[in-house]
Amino acid sequence: MHLADIRAQEAWRVFKIMAEFVDGFETLASLPPAVSIFGSARTAPSDPDYAAARRCAFELARRNIAVITGGGPGIMEAGNRGAFEASGVSVGLNIALPMEQAPNAFQTHALHFEYFFVRKVMFVKYARAFVIFPGGFGTLDEFFEALTLVQTLKIPPFPVICYGTEFWDALLRWMRATLLEKHRVISLGDLDLFQATDDIDEIVDIIEKHLRGEGRFCELPGRPIDMPELGRAGEMTAEGTRVGQSTKRVSTAFPLSNGGPSPGVPGAPPSQPVG
Prior knowledge:
single chain; alpha/beta; 275 residues; Rossmann fold; globular; 7 helices; 7-stranded parallel beta sheet
């Protein structure tokens, strides 16, 4: 394939990505306050975690809180099912996978994505809390992404609640012993960015308090919701994250477009501040 053909394909890919963003924004912009629920696609309807996720979503929907899931089976189906059975807003963010994932039948709003990163924006932009049930790599991905966004102040703090203390206990102990105490790659306060519980009523209560502007997730130390002292850096963008400090204050000695070495490559001098 010629270079010109590759460039043309990449240009059209940008329009496909834009179309997914537009479809998501237009569909979800009118939602009531929403909660994203995550968990394994492999959880059977007979599993107690399925029943817990279904009840959690039902109780949230009864309070006019929309429920957002990945649209598939397992915990995702349980979340959509509970919201649907409460006559609430039940959103499925379905993803095209090599191994077909059929959308569950309990979605009042169904979106279909080819790009994981567009879908992930929708989970964060329209959610006021994350409830995370036992799951695998995808569930852990969403869990740690939420913690990263709150920790780095890219989004205002919101409840990140892990259901099932037996499932989460080993991971949380590892985070404390290895990340905090042994290697010191996180701060003590970072462990307050989330909590684990076995009580669905407690989850619903935490989320209700947060939506009323109450509770510890509204006023985390050093992580206020409103950050006027940062000026534009603290403003929220259309995709639901803060603008942040610009990284365009330094320039490389060898612009990449000229074929020179990249910063950090042997032979490349350190970047110099502009001005």
